[in-house]
Amino acid sequence: MNTKIIEAFKNKLKDGFVLGPFSKTNDSAYIEIMGLAGFDFVIIDMEHGPVNTIAARELIMACELKGILPIIRVKENMPSLIGEVLDIGACGVQIPQITDAASAKEVIKLAKFHPAGNRGVCRYVRAADHSSMEKSEYFREANRALLILQLEGKQALDNIDEILEVEGIDIIFIGPYDLSQSLGVPGEVNHPLVISRMDEIVVKSRNKGIITGTFVETPADAKKWIGSGLRYICYSVDVGIFYSACRQINDSLKR
């Protein structure tokens, strides 16, 4: 695990916001391009993307080469998934469908070594430089990996106060699409009801010293939420960004 990238990422968060897309491809060239373009992080998507563990390892390597923070979104809150992506060197794990304090505490337990948690112990992994890293150093440094918890439904909103009391959360990510559906306005991510509930989470998280973030698809929405205090801005998806650029070129030349 590359702690220098983690440190640079955290320093940038102290002074402003960070920006990065989701990635749903298995092509490391996309990752290299994201780094060259100046993105701060990429979320390698194992929940909704066709990425397996071997492919994710190669994508993490590409991130490290270009100085972009590799985060992996796992399918669900399971020991085998969280430990696996940390073992291959993910600098952060994003966990979907957190609904209450119990599920948040479970994530901490699965992602951290003693004394913060109870993660399965093995130092013969890529994150420990394949056992060449001194044991105590590895167990200490591994606990610096970022934990990003996704709140996506009304149940999470109702339990937000107890979730924010859990120690060890680095970032709260608000999933606007799932949230809109749970509030009865599916897909309407700019609906006043959705925005008001998101604002509520932002204020409560800020009061607890926890950074918040969300998913956006336009520069206008990104600027709006940055202005509202969000600092972890997930901008669209690599395949969608590529499609939009291709479509824009095509439309401009064929009008």
Question: Which terms summarize this structure?
Answer:
16% strand; eight-stranded parallel β-barrel; 48% helix; 255 residues; alpha/beta; TIM Barrel; single chain; 8 strands
How would you portray this structure in words?
This protein has one domain (3-254): TIM Barrel, CATH 3.20.20.60. It is built from 12 helices and 8 strands. It has helices at residues 3-15, 28-37, 53-66, 79-87, 101-111, 135-142, 154-158, 160-163, 176-182, 192-207, 219-227, 238-254, and strands spanning 18-23, 41-45, 69-73, 92-95, 146-151, 171-174, 211-216, 232-237. Strands 1-2-3-4-5-6-7-8 form an 8-stranded parallel barrel, surrounded by 8 helices. It is globular.
The CATH class is identified as Alpha Beta
Q: Give the domain tally.
A: 1
Specify the helix fraction band.
40-55%
Number of DSSP helical runs: 12
Morphology call: globular
Indicate the CATH architecture: Alpha-Beta Barrel
H/E topology pattern: HEHEHEHEHHEHHEHHEHEH
Q: Radius of gyration in whole Å, from Cα?
A: 18 Å
Largest sheet, in brief, is: 8 strands, parallel, barrel
Beginning-to-end CA distance, first to last residue: 49 Å
Overall mean confidence score, pLDDT:
93
Q: What percent of residues are in strands?
A: 15-25%
Strand order of the largest sheet: 1-2-3-4-5-6-7-8
Number of strands: 8
Full CATH superfamily name: Phosphoenolpyruvate-binding domains
Q: Which stretches are low in confidence, meaning pLDDT under 50 for 5 or more residues running?
A: none
Structure classification: alpha/beta
CATH topology: TIM Barrel
